[in-house]
Design a protein that fits this description.
The chain is of the alpha+beta class. The protein has six helices and eight strands.
């Protein structure tokens, strides 16, 4: 699966600009992905250093392989990277996944919902996708609320990477 075009620059929202991560974002990427509070519901290990973050940004293959990926979420107010949001092709499931992650200082402000809404609209309208999924760990109630607020429906619980996860789905509604 590969979408047509260059989608390194994503949509803007009232408070966020979305664009591909750049090496200059490594410190913010590290801060986000090494924070225990942020990482507790991801199923991923924390990022180990700024050097590892830089290497991860430089080696991120999704733009070349699939034409889509996770965008850095930049606050329009501070011009700082405060998280990420975007669409990622999961080859093992043959699905496009909506994902988002924000620093704790931004929690409870509606930024995840704002970013997720923009990403879904971009995927369905700009990219012409017919189905987008969201995967979350069962204990991540805040993420489940975001997925529900943006109109996604819980489809099932299944094992992913050896852990039970909740799968949410948004289908295109074309007339």
């Amino acid at each position: 699966m590969k979408v047509k075009g260059d989608h390194r620059t994503g949509p803007e929202t009232a408070r966020l600009r979305l664009r591909a991560f750049e090496p200059k974002d490594a410190e913010a990427f590290y801060r986000l992905n090494s924070d225990p509070a942020v990482m507790q519901h991801t199923g991923e290990p924390p990022c180990e250093s700024i050097e590892v973050a830089t290497a991860a940004i430089r080696a991120y293959p999704d733009w070349q392989l699939y034409g889509i990926g996770r965008w850095a979420a930049i606050s329009k107010e501070t011009d700082e990277v405060v998280g990420f949001a975007g669409l990622k092709y999961l080859a093992d499931l043959d699905e496009v996944d909506l994902g988002y992650r924000f620093v704790p200082e931004c929690w409870g402000r509606g930024l995840a919902t704002e970013a997720a809404t923009a990403c879904l609209k971009y995927g369905l309208e700009t990219l012409g996708l017919e189905r987008i999924i969201g995967i979350t760990l069962p204990a991540n109630h805040a993420s489940m609320r975001v997925l529900e607020k943006v109109g996604m429906t819980r489809e099932k619980t299944f094992l992913y990477d050896g852990e039970p996860v909740e799968l949410y789905v948004k289908l295109v509604t074309r007339e």
